[in-house]
Amino acid sequence: PEIRDGISELVARRGIDLVQLEHLPLGQYAAGLPAGLPRVLLFQDVASSVLRQQVRISGGMRKWLLYREWDRSRYWEKRYAAAAGNVFVLSRKDQRVVESWDVGARCAVLPPLFGEGFFDPPAGETEAGNVLFVGAMHRWVNIDAARLLKEKIMPLVVRECPLARATVVGDRPPASLRALAAPDFRVTGAVESLGPFLGRAAVFAAPLRVAGGVIVKVLQAMAAGKPVVATRAANAGIGAEEEKEILVADRPEDFARKVIGLLRDRARAAAVGEAGRRFVRDRCDPERSRRRIDEIYAAAGRR
């Protein structure tokens, strides 16, 4: 009730051109806005798409519970998108999902908008064999990726490159993940700055089995000129060219082989890193992104 009353108070004032609802549960208020007032529902991630990936890799009771949540989320996403009429997403992958619903909503992709400092080269010298993974380590998808890196990928990498080691950076790692720490697998917890860790990384790994929208940490590594090995799920929202701007593999043995190849061939690693840096610089050019965002909102307001 407080949210509903607050929205009513806002739209009653003069000068409101458009109302943007930032998260899926707020979509319930779209239908109650005054007729003719443009409204937008913003999906940071399309939840049903992420849940579908989790259903695919889960089993037992968890699989059933996730399937039920996926079915419920898909219903409400479609209903609220239809009520809003405008949907903004952060990746072309999510745009394709929304458009497949065929609910009559106009869907636009907001480009990433980063400050100029995002493209500054990180400090520090690259350390041979240093494999970096970054994420908020209280999130299940990142814990799953870190465990995959530790248990199935790094043993294969270390077998071929004995000096290789992985560093997992991110706040609030659970005790179960900290317990996996070893000479070739470091778990840092929260850090003041990611820059030094990016600077020392020889390869950035993103073995995410579940991913939604744009994975900013992958863009950040690419912007720093670091060669990235990622799953198809991690690259789906980014759309970098495989084998040129990013290396892609889903099976642990294939993922490890791509990492090993980059650690052994510095020229190849440098070429992939530079191609990725150019890709991000072109796609995420701040001035171009600002102009595009202005165009998207103007179009939604006119509609």
Task: Describe this protein's structure.
The chain has 303 residues and is an alpha/beta fold. The protein is 49% helix and 13% strand. The protein contains 12 helices and 10 strands. The longest helix has 25 residues, at 60-84.
Output the number of helix runs: 12
| Biggest sheet strand line-up | 7-6-5-8-9-10
- The helix/strand order is HEEHHEHEEHEHEHEHEHEHHH
Q: Give me the Rg, rounded.
A: 21 Å
Give the biggest beta sheet: 6 strands, parallel
Structural category: alpha/beta
What portion of the residues fall into strands of 2 or more residues?
A: 5-15%
Estimate percent helicity: 40-55%
What is the topological layout?
Elements (H helix, E strand, L loop, with lengths): L1 H11 L6 E3 L17 E4 L4 H11 L2 H25 E5 L2 H10 L4 E4 L20 E5 L5 H21 L4 E5 L5 H4 L6 E5 L5 H6 L2 E4 L9 H8 L4 E3 L1 H5 L10 E2 L3 H13 L1 H18 L2 H17 L1
Parallel strand pairs: 1-2, 2-3, 3-4, 5-6, 5-8, 6-7, 8-9, 9-10
